[in-house]
Amino acid sequence: MTRPTVADLAAARERIAAHIHRTPVLTCRTLDEATGARLFFKCENFQKAGAFKARGATNAVFSLSAEQAARGVATHSSGNHGQALARAAAARGIRATVVMPETAPKPKIDAVRGYGADVIFCEPTNAARQTALDAFVADTGAEFIAPYDDVRVIAGQASCAAELIEDVPDLDAVIAPVGGGGLISGTALTIAAHAPHIAVHGGEPAAADDAARSLESGQRCGNDAPDTIADGLKASLGEITWPIVREHVAAITRVDEDAIIHAMRLIWERMKIIVEPSCAVALAAVLAAPQHFENRRVGVILTGGNVDLDRLPW
C-alpha cells in the first residue's frame, strides 16, 4: 500500500481514541496581530508523551497481529517517536527498542527509558540510525515501526487534523512542521478527503530543507546530517510521504535558526505554554511568509513540548 485510504484514517482514529488526548485549540490575539492572520493553534504539546507522535505510534502498535506483537517493536528516533512507541508498546505489554543518536536531548532519552524501552545509541546521522536499526531487527525479528514512512503511522497522525477541522470548521489554511513528512502527509490526506478547500502548508528549517528542495525540483531530495536546533525535523521525506507532499502541499517555507528560536520564545511568552524548537517552526513560517496567511484563518499545528529545560536556546 502506497498511502492510507480514507477508511484507514477512520479506523486509526477509532483505534487510538482511548489511548490519546483530544488536544485543545488555543488562540492568541498578540500573535494574530504579529502575523496579520487569525491563528488557531492545535496543541499537541499537551498530547500523551508530549507530542503528536503518540497518534501514529499507537495506531501502529495496536494494528499488529498477536504474532507480530510477540516479537516486539523497534524504531530509530531523536526522541518524540521513540517516546511514543515506548509508551504504546507498554500499553500493549510488549517490548520496544529505540535507536537514538548520541546527541538526542537527555529528557527524551530518559523518557524513552522511563516508558520501559531499551535504547541503542548511534552516531548522529540518518545513515547510522538505519544501520543500527537494521542490525537489531535482523537479530531479533522485531517489527520496525518507522517514525514517519509507514502507512499505519501516517493514518494515526491524520487524526490530529481531523480534530482540528471539526473544532474550527472554517479554516482557510493549515500549516505543520515538516521533517520526515508523517504529520504533514496525514494532515494533507485528511484535508483532501474532508475539506479540500483548505490549503496545506509546511514549515521547515533552512538547515534541513529537503522537502522544500524536493518540491522545487520535483525529485525527492535528502539530508544526512543536518545541523538544526529543530532536532525533530532532521529526517528527510520518505518513499511514502514524498508523493503525498508533492500532490497535496501548496508550499513549504524555510526558516533559519534565529527565526525558530524567536517563534519558540514568542509562544512561551505570549501563550504561556511550553513548546520545543521543532514545534515552533510552523509559527516561524507564518511570520516568514505573510503572503500565504495574511487575513486568513489558519490552523497551526504545535507538534510537541519535549524540551530540555537545562539547554534553552535563549
TrEMBL record:
This is Pyridoxal-5'-phosphate-dependent protein subunit beta. The keyword Lyase applies. Residues 17-304 form the Tryptophan synthase beta chain-like PALP domain. GO terms for biological process: D-serine biosynthetic process. Keywords: Lyase, Pyridoxal phosphate. Its cofactor is pyridoxal 5'-phosphate. InterPro entries: TrpB-like_PALP, TrpB-like_PALP_sf. Coiled coil: none annotated. Gene3D superfamilies: 3.40.50.1100. Belongs to the serine/threonine dehydratase family. It comes from Salinisphaera hydrothermalis (strain C41B8). GO terms for molecular function: ATP binding; L-serine ammonia-lyase activity; magnesium ion binding; pyridoxal phosphate binding; serine racemase activity; threonine racemase activity. It comes from the Bacteria.
